[in-house]
Design brief:
Blueprint (H helix, E strand, L loop, with lengths): L13 H19 L9 H13 L16 H9 L6 H24 L7 H13 L11 H21 L4 H15 L6 H14 L5 H29 L3 H17 L3 H35 L3 H19 L13 H16 L8 H24 L3 H8 L8 H11 L5 E6 L2 H7 L2 E2 L16 H15 L3 E5 L12 H13 L1 E8 L5 E5 L11 E7 L6
Parallel strand pairs: 1-2, 1-3
Antiparallel strand pairs: 3-6, 4-5, 4-6
Length: about 525
């Protein structure tokens, strides 16, 4: 049954808790270890590239354009120091964060669920967060954001129980600040907790304590922001940090129409339904159960968390599947509470029967989705299934050819949005724009940025170029100066070395270009172009 935030009830023994935590770590590892070798997608490629360049005393935003907050680059940088290949290293870091998040969710669920239901919630989270069709195999920002976000909820509840403990209040805000340092939309969680504190606070001095919580938690949040800001200011990159992470993202959000938002949302939800349908149904039952049981505090907490997570998911309007991972912690908690409530509607001969049945039901859909990715698909097959129409599986081989025709001192210009090529090849970009999306769209000073980028490329004198265009670069609604300049620059300065040819809707092959050959008439996805002195 649900307990109040300040109520006392028996706790599981320390030994049992240790066993549960160990079990969650093992389950998360078992789910994710078979997925460690799935090749990088483009977002992972940008994080990995910038993390690699951090080791050369370079700075995000100042030296390399990106719109994500900086914490993801530091985690990737730490992962790349591991003594395994980079793809496994980064995905192993994701495994560690996922396991820690599952354990944190277990401890959070123990505050209002009895028996083994917190364990079920944590296992459900571990399974759904690894769902390939939620792009759970990738080490994206949401996956890392969730750990400090869940810990901030635990700190919030403890602060409500201990209104004199300003350290808990400060820690709650600091954890939220760390979550924001992974992804900006975590900020909505801070406002949720400020609104919830008066509901959970004891009646005695409620508003005084609520003001104290708002003050100290804001202090923790701004402490994290201040540390990050000071780091970039000392390295003369604060202005670029603000322009990329704040200003550009506000313009990015405003560029999406409502019709496009609805289309993207419906397409993504249809894909997620294969693993999450039962969770959605039982979460509806869980919300009803909270109302029926008169548990207003916990309804406000869980429903509020779900709503703010929805705001975070929908902020940009693109509704990429990995955005929906932000919903998983409250969804898992509410769904499992719904299962607990339904299991108590009738008498069972054995108390473990309803739990076992619902646990099995929870596992069926995610396991059905994961099964072929564990036992049937190669890593290349897996990435093709997850990202149809993209050719991430071919990028390592493509990058190997780039490394073969260039030296480590030479720069490479990628006319496209595939920074993983630069990382795989360990070659430095000829421009700060390691992917070109920020140069195309309804952003301020686009023409000036395009002209500056063209000048930067000419100064860098790249020895090779990769042509992997995106439709956005040819959209009549976007400024086409840089597209026209790039096509002319490539034609005048480079010769084809390798073609990337589509064999099927999901598979491509690399074909060496014959001297003085022209582009293939059909199926050409991209090309590696080299200067005459680099042809081999």
């Amino acid at each position: 049954m649900i307990e109040s935030a300040t109520g006392l009830r028996p706790r599981p023994s320390a030994r049992l808790t240790i066993l549960v935590v160990a079990g969650l770590i093992l389950i998360t590892a078992a789910v994710r270890i078979p997925l460690l070798r799935v090749p990088f997608e483009r977002d992972e490629g940008e994080y990995a590239y910038i993390a690699w360049r951090l080791g050369h005393n370079e700075l995000p935003y100042r030296d390399w354009v990106d719109q994500k907050p900086p914490a993801i680059f530091w985690v990737y940088r730490a992962a790349l120091t591991l003594p395994v290949d980079p793809i496994r290293a980064v995905h192993f870091a994701a495994l560690l964060f996922s396991a820690a998040s599952a354990c944190a969710l277990f401890f959070l669920a123990r505050r209002f669920m009895n028996r083994f239901w917190p364990f079920v919630a944590a296992v459900l989270f571990a399974l759904l967060s690894a769902d390939p069709f939620a792009q759970g195999t990738a080490a994206n920002t949401e996956l890392f954001m969730l750990l400090p976000l869940i810990l901030s909820q635990i700190a919030f509840l403890k602060a409500a129980d201990n209104p004199r403990n300003v350290l808990l209040m400060f820690g709650c805000g600091a954890l939220t600040g760390i979550a924001i340092a992974f992804k900006q939309v975590a900020a909505v969680n801070f406002f949720l907790l400020i609104a919830l504190y008066p509901i959970f606070a004891a009646a005695d001095k409620r508003w005084r304590n609520s003001l104290a919580f708002a003050f100290w938690s804001a202090g923790g949040l701004f402490a994290i922001a201040g540390i990050i800001g000071l780091y970039f200011r000392m390295r003369r990159g604060l202005g670029e940090l603000v322009n990329n992470v704040v200003t550009h993202n506000l313009e990015y959000i405003g560029a999406m129409t409502w019709s496009d938002r609805l289309q993207f949302c419906s397409e993504t939800v249809a894909g997620l339904a294969r693993a999450e349908t039962l969770g959605w149904i039982l979460s509806a039952a869980g919300l009803i159960a909270l109302i029926v049981a008169g548990k207003g505090k916990w309804f406000a907490f869980l429903a509020g968390w779900l709503i703010t997570s929805m705001i975070g998911v929908s902020a940009s309007g693109y509704f990429f599947p990995h955005y929906f991972q932000q919903l998983l912690p409250p969804l898992a908690l509410i769904a499992v509470f719904g299962a607990q409530w339904l299991s108590e509607l009738r008498r069972w001969r054995s108390s473990w029967v309803p739990g076992a049945l619902f646990s099995l039901l929870f596992a069926i859909l995610p396991l059905k989705t994961l099964w072929p990715f564990w036992f049937r698909y190669t890593p290349s097959d897996a990435v093709r299934k997850i990202y149809p129409g993209n050719f991430f599986a071919e990028m390592p081989e493509f990058a190997a050819r780039i490394a073969q025709v260039t030296s480590s001192e030479q720069r490479v210009f990628v006319f496209g949005a595939e920074p993983e090529l630069l990382f795989y090849a360990q070659r430095v970009s000829a421009t700060r724009y390691i992917f070109l999306f920020p140069l195309f769209g309804p952003y301020r000073n686009v023409r000036e940025k395009q002209i500056a980028t063209a000048d930067e490329i000419q100064r860098a004198a790249p020895a090779a170029a990769v042509y992997v265009p995106n439709d956005l670069f040819f959209n009549p609604g976007s400024d086409q100066y840089f597209t026209d300049w790039s096509l002319s620059y490539l034609e005048q300065n480079f010769y084809p070395d390798t073609w990337l040819i589509k064999e099927s809707p999901t598979v491509a092959e690399l074909v060496r270009a014959e001297p003085d050959s022209s582009a293939p008439a059909e199926g050409m996805l991209g090309a590696l172009l080299v200067k005459p002195g680099n042809r081999q």
